[in-house]
Description:
This protein is an alpha+beta fold. The protein has helices at 40-51, 60-66, 118-127, 143-148, 152-163, 165-190, 193-318, 322-381, 387-498, 502-518, 527-530, 538-545, 557-570, 610-617, 626-636, and strands spanning 4-13, 16-23, 75-83, 95-103, 109-111, 114-116, 523-526, 532-533, 552-554, 577-579, 596-598, 603-604, 620-623, 639-642, 647-648. The two termini are 21 Å apart. 11% of the residues are buried.
Amino acid sequence: NKMRITQVKIKNFKSYRDQNHFEEFHKQVNIIVGANGSGKSSLVDAIQFVLSPYYQKIGTNERKALLHRGKGVVSGSVEITFDNSEGRLPVDDDTVRIKRNLGLSKADYYLNDKHITGAKVMNLLETAGFSSANPYYVVEQGKITSISRMSSGELLDLLKEVAGTRVYEEREAESQKILAETRERKEKIGGSDGVLSILEARLEELEREKEELEEFKAADRNRRAIEFTLYNRELEDVNKKLDTLEANHEKDLKEAGEIHQTSAENTRSLRTAEADLKVVTSQIENLNTQIKFCQEEHAQYVQDKAKHELDLNYALAHFGSDEERRDFLNNQINSLKEEIDSVRRNLEQTQEEFTGLQTDETQCRASLQELERNVQDLYNRREFRNVRERNAWIDKEIADLDEARREKTQRIQEYTNQMEGIQEKIEAYKKVSLSKEDELASRIKNRDELNARHNELRVARDEFSNTRKELWRKDNEITNQLNQNSQEISKLLRKLYRTLNRERSEGLESVKRLKEQYNLKGVHGPVIELLSCDEKVMTALEVVAGNALFNVVVDTDETASELLTLLRTEKAGRVTFMPLNQLHPTSTPFPRTETATPLMEVISARPTYQKAMQQIFGRTLLCSDLGSAAYISKTHDIDCVTNEGDRINRKG
């Protein structure tokens, strides 16, 4: 059977300052290599300080020499952890930690954090083979050279020490010494009369002491009787007082029960109040969020109002508002109507003038005809003296008539030209009126279409606004629910971390704090926070992973080294890291059966964390029952686990 060292912790010992860890020693041979002054010999001295009997009795100066020569260092310690799975040490633990504190005044031992004397530690070590009679389980520097130069006698003594025969020789010498002393005492008792007389005197003295003892016993019996009587009286008084106290106690118990019941009712009321407080807090958060959304909506409305005002100002500058636009169009319509009325009035006036001119023409033609008849009558009635006079008068009348005809013709031509101009104006006014009427109808149509489109957009805007408010409300409820869930998860994780040992729990909390404090991007978190699964298989995952559920996943070993340095600097606990760039898990072929499923298939995690999950769970099969697990593990040489947490290891 072998017992080996698995870990060494050194603090303020010789060249080692603060806390230093040496762990994961190889099962066979470990070689320590380092430059001069790096602490190789100090490590061996630290091991001897705990295991060697030569360091049992050391003075103040020697203890001071073993301490680290630093400012303010007054104490140190060395702790060695052994693998006791073979039971070499008589301790009921597979791992045994022996720690020795070093101070200026004393050096105490601790076995698994319990105080123990140095002698008991040496006895435990001797049962494991660390005998003080065989000091060669630690071979110091230069020892081999001195052994090679020993004489034959010295080598024989050395072999006796190594083989352990000297122990028997020393014990034989001690036995011979005790035997000689016994013989000497026997001779003194049997061969000297002086000794017998001394014994007889001693016997007489003992007889007298016996008589005195009998007298003392009788007096003591009387004393006990008197004391018993007194005690009996005191007992009766005490019983009476006890009855009174019991009555008071029952009364107190009754009052305590009432108080407990009141406390339970108060506790229930408190829980109800806390639940109501959570609801009210959630409602307040919802209202605050709604107020925030309303403020944002108000700000949006103010922004939209400003935008619409700008559009309105622009429209007013170019087109005016809807009412002004309608007024403008109505004014244009009224203007067009006035123009049409004016044109109609002008047309009527022109038609009246035209009718008047036609009447004047008719009258002129009638007057002309009347004059012609009068002239003809004159021709017929007048008498001339001669032909010449008649011809002169006729020529004059003809000239007058021609002049009148020319004037009439000229006036008719002027009236005709005026009528043609008026007719052209009438046609032009008719065309303008038709054009204005078409334009007015088109604008009225566009106005009606724009009003209809405006109403449709207003309705759509109201619908979208209501939809947005509803979505905001739902988003607010979901956000509040997520916040509450996050708080509950944080509480549960804190409770879970409290179940761990103090160093690991403190380390996990410190990793979260350092990640936020130094803005470390490559820290993903503990394994348990990176996976999700059905609650039915959680027990199986806990059994397979064990403490690995709390290993912290990081992206690279550089991130792990940086975090480890920070943890050591702040002395903020211990954490096991899993750098993804250093993980190379192998895939295990699993048999496909109805009763077994690879454990990786019941775990949900991001692709980034698959290496870490494969490293922990990739070599285990989840089975429906213990019988199937045992059969598959035996036939396919793989690890199996059931939903209830029963694990079958392929190694047995």
